[in-house]
Write a structure and sequence with these properties.
Structural class: alpha+beta
Helix content: 10-25%
Order of helices and strands: EEEEEEEHEEEHHE
Number of strands: 11
Radius of gyration: 20 Å
Strand order of the largest sheet: 7-4-9-8-11
Shape: globular
Oligomer: single chain
Largest sheet: 5 strands, mixed
Strand content: 25-35%
């Protein structure tokens, strides 16, 4: 039977639909994230399916906008691509007990030497939901200030090469649409900021809005049988 398309009048929203997990195994344990092998059933009667994916702690990013309607981009080398990418300040949620917005503020200070007075949630997304549990939240930060000199973070490794650039939002949108910017947080953040500006920034969520898609907030998946290894 052909599935009917969702009506435009329906409330469009992702929702949890956890399936029965037969077992789970960590097949690679990394420094920050693991590769997990899950066996699960789509239905109680169905044959188990096997999927490998990256079990990721999630991340936050910051689209910074100043009073001149410019956005901050940072340039950084990324080894997996072999490219220098234009990005927005971002980082892993790898500090135990740290809340989401304070983590974003910390990354902004560390990568751009900036502070912000006003924060809103701009957009949430999964970076690659077919192969990773990574959830990313992008904040819109305004009311920009500078980190005091004695509190500046010493950037090392790839971050030591970071370059900063302020770009009019419309020019950043053009760079995205012309394929000159590839970083997913930058692409999502720039386009979402342009859409939000078109609505006068009305309707943006507060900085402490719930984030149910983050791994720490998701309901437990039902299990049967015995979990193997170090499954999540």
């Amino acid at each position: 039977m052909t599935q009917q398309p969702t009506s435009a009048t329906d409330h469009l929203a992702d929702h949890y639909n956890p399936r029965t997990r037969v077992d789970s195994e960590v097949v690679y344990e990394g420094r920050i994230w693991n590769v997990v092998k899950d066996r699960f059933r789509l239905t109680d009667e169905g044959e188990p399916l096997v999927r490998d994916y990256i079990d990721h702690p999630g991340a936050v990013a910051v689209l910074v906008m100043n009073d001149a309607d410019e956005v901050l981009l940072i340039n950084q080398y990324r080894q997996p691509t072999g490219m220098n990418l234009w990005e927005i300040p971002a980082g892993l949620l790898d500090v135990e007990g740290e809340d989401f917005q304070p983590a974003a503020a910390r990354e902004l200070a560390e990568e751009a030497d900036l502070t912000a007075e006003h924060w809103n949630v701009l957009v949430d997304f999964f970076n690659s939901p077919g192969s990773s549990s990574e959830a990313i939240r992008i904040y819109l930060a305004r009311g920009i200030g500078t980190v005091p000199h004695h509190e500046l973070h010493e950037r090392t490794a790839e971050e030591a090469e970071i370059e900063l650039a302020w770009l009019p939002l419309d020019e950043a949108v053009n760079a995205v649409l012309e394929g000159r910017i590839h970083n997913p947080s930058a692409v999502n953040g720039v386009l979402a900021a342009a859409a939000a500006r078109g609505r006068g920034f009305a309707g943006l969520r507060p900085a402490d809005a719930p984030w149910s898609a983050h791994p720490s907030q998701r309901p437990s998946r039902p299990k049967t049988g015995r979990a193997q290894g170090q499954g999540n």
